[in-house]
Known about the structure:
Oligomer: single chain
Radius of gyration: 21 Å
Distance between the termini: 59 Å
Strand content: under 5%
Low-confidence stretches: 246-256, 376-391
Amino acid sequence: xxxxxxxxxxxxxxxxxxxxxxxxxxxxxxxxxxxxxxxxxxxxxxxxxxxxxxxxxxxxxxxxxxxxxxxxxxxxxxxxxxxxxxxxxxxxxxxxxxxxxxxxxxxxxxxxxxxxxxxxxxxxxxxxxxxxxxxxxxxxxxxxxxxxxxxxxxxxxxxxxxxxxxxxxxxxxxxxxxxxxxxxxxxxxxxxxxxxxxxxxxxxxxxxxxxxxxxxxxxxxxxxxxxxxxxxxxxxxxxxxxxxxxxxxxxxxxxxxxxxxxxxxxxxxxxxxxxxxxxxxxxxxxxxxxxxxxxxxxxxxxxxxxxxxxxxxxxxxxxxxxxxxxxxxxxxxxxxxxxxxxxxxxxxxxxxxxxxxxxxxxxxxxxxxxxxxxxxxxxxxxxxxxxxxxx
Length: 391
C-alpha cells in the first residue's frame, strides 16, 4: 500500500477541518494555566512539525506508515501496545475514512494537548521565579525534539499526552484527577508497564508528603507493590511475554526488549555500555557525534542545552530546595528516575532513546527548574492558591 498524504479534495477538506477544530479547541484554553496566546502558539508550532513529519515519513524510515497500513486490516484485534495503537488508528481510517495526513493531524492534537499541559505545569511551577527564568523556560516548550516526536501516528504522541497530563495534574490532584485518569488510560493503551511506575510515583508522593504513621505507610506501600505486580503481569501478558517470576526471566525480558529496539535510525548501540553510560546516552546523547546530518546537529544542540540546565539545577539543589508542592516533587523525582532506569535498560539503540526520553525528561526538567532561585514566592502562591512548599 503506497502512502500518499491526501488523495482527493475530500481528504484535503477533512484535513483542514481537523486543523480548524484543533485551533478552536486550543483557543478555548484547555489548560487553564495558559493564556489564549500561548495555547494557540503551542498548537500552531506543533502543527507545523506535524506537517513536516508526515511529509518526512514518505521517503524515510518511520513507524507511522506501518501503523496506518495495519489499521486497514478488517480482522484487526484490539490489544495493548502496538495492537492498541493499530486499533485506535483504525477508528479514524476505517471509521471516519481519514487520509494519512488527516490521521496525522488527529495525533497532532493529542500530542499538542500533552505539550500544552507540560507548558501549564512549567508556568505554575516557575511563577515564583524571576522574570528571566520564566522567559528562559519558554525554550523548553518549543524545543524541536519535544514536538518532532509527539506529532506522528504511533505510541509517542499518546505517551507524551500522558506525560504532560501527569505533570500538570499532579500539581492539583483534587481538581485535576480527570487529567491523571486520562494519562493512565493513555499509558495503559501504549505502554502498559509504565502504569506500574505511575502507581509507585503516586504512592511515594502520598507517603513522603503526608504525616501518617509508619504502619499506614507500610500498608500503603504493600498495597502499591501488589498493584504494581498485577499491572506488570498484565502488561507482559498483553504484549505476549507471559509471566516473569525469576531473576533469569527478568534478564531474558531485558534482552528481548533490547533486541526489539536494536533498529532505530542510529549507528550507536548502547546495550553493551555500563549502567552509567546507558543512563547518560539515553538522556543526553547525541552530542555532535553518532547521528549525522541536520537533524543530528539540532538534536545535539538541544541535548547540550538540556545537559547544561540539568547540571546547573543539580548545583542549585545543594543550596535551594525544589520549590514545589511536596507531593509533586516526589512524584516528579520517582517517576523520572524509575522511567529513566527502565528505558536505559530496555533500549539498545540511540535513535529509539531519542524518542522515549520524552516520557520522563519533562518530569526531570520540571524538578530541576524548580531548584532555581526564587524572586516572587508569596505573590505566585497567592495567584495559584498553593500552600508554601516545605523547605
